[in-house]
């Protein structure tokens, strides 16, 4: 199963409430995915600065002097905001590559969840309610976000197996379904030099999109070609710096409902996830077509 | 009119209350408020009662219905009126996938569009969709009538048995062993009756009929090499 929610705000006055609305949507999808939960939230970007969201199973130890160590390693100032097992590291944009390299040497146990100007990804094992509470997701603001509740089928219930998956700077992917050709595709991508950390099928889907885009495809083109190259069931929702996209496989077994008002565009695996959004009774509600790429952006 | 608030009194209580209505019940009219997309609303009913759901529902609304009339003033999730035996289910909005799947009897009316696999494996139910239907509709449909006032998606009537399909608009593609068939007077009569019962003002003469070519019923020796 798995549950997906997404909310893209058109009305800026709702931005302080993004985390609250999205958390409630995520918790409603608990019975589609009680194993782990995650959220990608696009908050205020700071000019010239990049955010790395990192995760550690030993956060207290790993984060303790990290900003100082990292700052010395890259020769630039770094700030770190810890949030439970995650931390957002803010640094000068051009230093992002060097910082990721230094991070791998300084704290090899740390996982980079996302990087980009606006994106932050938080995900952990546990019930969606517990995950949203430990990160205080309800208190976060932003312009858009996507969330996922996982019922694991293809690989273990771990933090790495939780969604969203980063697919590049300011981009992420969540998935409902299962890919049946992920082993073949993983081997192919690894031969191409793409790093894939887990045995999870969705990570292969994410790596595939990243690889396509590194080879010149736009996100829309990469999604179009996923319809050809990925075998299995999928409803994908992708997040980008200024919007989000939706694509379903041609068979379209995995459910999807969308709603649009003057204030927002919302996505839910089920209509239940959308019922408490403001003005939902007068929203245009529809089911996205199979094998069709949808995009909304600011 | 009896009213039941799903948000306040719970889904299990709703179905227990509606299922407890006997043939001769005096409480024949029911209103269900705050459905909030819940699954399995008004399922397994077996009495001549009238139930109006004030809002949209999730999976399996009005499943296994017998005798009752269920109207949804909103849209429905996957599997509305699944395995319906008799009675009437009317959806004012859209229906998600496999509407009316495996239905044995009764009438399902969808005022909006129905998505993929509408009427899959239908076994005698009549389905009237005022809008369009999605791909793989009436897959392995055995008996009954599927009426579509709009367009049909890919692979309509794939591996069809004896259900009759009527489409007014375009058909993106026909599935294996589904062909267009002659519209005879008895079909026009059936279709006209279904359209009028479903509250549609479409004219039966504007529809085309599709049915089984019956070529998959028996093994064809020329295909032996394919196995």
Automatic annotation (TrEMBL), chain A:
CDD domains for the chain: GlxB
Supply the alphabetized keyword list.
Glutamine amidotransferase, Glycosyltransferase, Transferase
Assigned EC number? 2.4.2.14
Chain segments annotated as transmembrane:
none
- Give every Glutamine amidotransferase type-2 domain span: 2-298
GO MF annotations, alphabetized: amidophosphoribosyltransferase activity
Instruction: Classify the source by domain of life.
Output: Bacteria
InterPro entries from the xrefs? GATase_2_dom (IPR017932), Ntn_hydrolases_N (IPR029055)
Question: PROSITE patterns annotated for this entry?
Answer: GATASE_TYPE_2
Pfam families given for it? GATase_6
For this entry, the protein name equals Amidophosphoribosyltransferase
Q: What is the lineage of its organism?
A: Bacteria, Pseudomonadati, Pseudomonadota, Alphaproteobacteria, Hyphomicrobiales
**Gene name of the encoded protein:** purF_2
Automatic annotation (TrEMBL), chain B:
- SUPFAM superfamilies attached to this UniProt entry: Alpha subunit of glutamate synthase, C-terminal domain (SSF69336)
Q: InterPro entries, per this entry?
A: Glu_synth_asu_C_sf (IPR036485), Glu_synth_lsu_3 (IPR012061)
Superkingdom, according to UniProt?
Bacteria
GO: which molecular function terms? Answer: oxidoreductase activity
State the name under which the record lists this protein: Formylmethanofuran dehydrogenase subunit C
**Organism of derivation:** Roseibium album
């Amino acid at each position: 199963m798995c549950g997906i929610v997404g909310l893209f705000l058109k009305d800026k006055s709702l931005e302080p409430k993004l985390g609250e609305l999205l958390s409630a949507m995520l918790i409603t999808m608990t019975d589609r995915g009680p194993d782990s939960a995650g959220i990608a939230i696009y908050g205020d970007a700071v000019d010239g600065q990049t955010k790395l969201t990192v995760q550690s199973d030993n956060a207290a130890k790993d984060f303790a002097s990290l900003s100082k160590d990292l700052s010395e390693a890259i020769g630039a100032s770094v700030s770190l905001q810890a949030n439970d097992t995650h931390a957002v590291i803010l640094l000068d944009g051009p230093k992002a590559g060097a910082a990721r390299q230094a991070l791998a040497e300084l704290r090899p146990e740390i996982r980079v969840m996302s990087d980009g100007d606006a994106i932050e990804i938080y995900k952990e094992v546990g019930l969606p309610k517990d995950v949203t509470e430990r990160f205080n997701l309800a208190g976060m603001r932003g312009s858009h976000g996507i969330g996922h509740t996982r019922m694991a089928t293809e690989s273990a219930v771990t933090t790495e197996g939780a969604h969203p998956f980063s697919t590049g700077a300011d981009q992420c992917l969540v998935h409902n379904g299962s890919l049946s050709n992920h082993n073949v595709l993983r081997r192919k991508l690894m031969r191409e030099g793409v790093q894939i950390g887990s045995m999870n099928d969705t990570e292969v889907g994410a790596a595939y999109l990243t690889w396509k885009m590194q080879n010149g495809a736009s996100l829309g083109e990469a999604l179009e070609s996923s319809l050809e190259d990925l075998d299995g069931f999928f409803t994908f929702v992708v997040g980008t710096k200024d919007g989000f996209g939706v694509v379903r496989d041609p068979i379209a077994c995995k459910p999807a409902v969308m709603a649009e008002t003057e204030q927002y565009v919302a996505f839910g695996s089920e209509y239940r996830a959308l019922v408490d959004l403001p003005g939902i009774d007068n929203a245009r509600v529809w089911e996205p077509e199979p094998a069709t790429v949808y995009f909304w952006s600011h | 009119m009896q009213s039941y608030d799903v948000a306040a009194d719970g889904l299990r209580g709703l179905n227990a209350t509606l299922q407890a209505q006997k043939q001769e019940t005096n409480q024949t009219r029911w209103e269900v408020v705050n459905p909030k997309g819940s699954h399995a609303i008004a399922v397994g009913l077996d009495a001549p009662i009238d139930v109006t759901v004030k809002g949209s529902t999730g999976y399996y609304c009005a499943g296994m219905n017998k005798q009752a009339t269920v109207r949804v003033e909103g849209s429905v999730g996957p599997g509305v009126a699944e395995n319906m035996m008799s009675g009437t289910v009317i959806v004012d909005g859209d229906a998600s996938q496999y509407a009316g799947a495996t239905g044995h009897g009764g009438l399902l009316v969808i005022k909006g569009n129905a998505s993929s696999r509408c009427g899959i494996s239908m076994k005698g139910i009549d389905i009237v969709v005022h809008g369009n239907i999605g791909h793989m509709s009436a897959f392995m449909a055995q008996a009954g009538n599927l009426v579509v006032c709009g367009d049909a998606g890919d692979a309509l009537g794939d591996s069809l048995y004896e259900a009759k399909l009527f489409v007014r608009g375009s058909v993106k593609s026909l599935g294996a062993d589904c062909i267009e068939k002659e519209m005879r007077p008895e079909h026009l009569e059936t279709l006209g009756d279904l359209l009028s019962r479903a509250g549609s003002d479409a004219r039966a003469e504007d529809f085309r009929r599709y049915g089984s070519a019956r070529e998959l019923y028996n093994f064809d020796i020329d295909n032996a090499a394919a196995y």
